[in-house]
Amino acid sequence: xxxxxxxxxxxxxxxxIRAIAEAENCELIAAIEREGSDALGKDSGELSGxxxxxxxITDDPIACFARCEAVLDFTAPKATLAFAELAAxxxxxxxxxxxxxxEDDIKxxxxxxxxxxxxxxxxxxxxxxxxxxxTKKVAAALDADFDIEIxxxxxxxxxxxxxxxxxxLGEAAAEGRGIxxxxxxxxxxxxxxxxxxxxxxxxxxxxxxxxxxxxEAIFAGTGERFVLSHYAGDRSIFSRGxxxxxxxxxxxxxGHYSMADVLGLSD
Length: 267
Hints:
It is a single chain. By secondary structure, this protein is α/β, with parallel strands linked by helices. It contains 10 helices and 12 strands. A 7-stranded parallel sheet has the order 3-2-1-4-5-6-12, with helices on both faces. The chain has a 5-stranded mixed sheet with strand order 8-9-7-10-11. It is elongated and about 60 Å long. 43% of the residues are buried.
């Protein structure tokens, strides 16, 4: 299976290149970066710590998309939407780990998924997707006497908040409760906020150091607290999941899938 990695010079891009190199029957054929990037022309293997692989980083995705079966994309919303159009035109697999996507962005991805096989998730790791499934089940089992709080921490360089994973957990909790996260999510608290509203799903965002990703779903009742947690120690858990998602989607019909579909966790 032939892969293209976009955002190839970033931390996740490099991890994706390493994951492709480690996977059986998978081949990197192109590495893409934005126009003007300092990484353009550099060997993607050397940049990723693998040694030279002969794949120089380029800023021209069109010809590359025409030669591959899958694109791995952990970039930014604007770039992801542009790549989604190209992936739809090429009728290929587009695995999206980009976070910070808005509702209108999702609608555009839905349109692209009429022709491409899109697998999108706020987090590609097996453990986090199991955490989301468990969060949904616990939220369904415990009534609103148990307050739900989602806590996440990431490295100081992360630019969006809450994390895509935190939002995924919040959506899972809301679905378990049969409510809308849009109506019940609380994303900031400051000053005199008043008493916590019954049924709200709160979010706390922490940033610092080199933390790859820590997440907790807390169910706080009277006299007891139930906590589901996941701590990521290596980006390879995300990159391996992305490669697995692409392989899974290879023979599927066009559509907009999730990691829950890939892992057989969908209802």
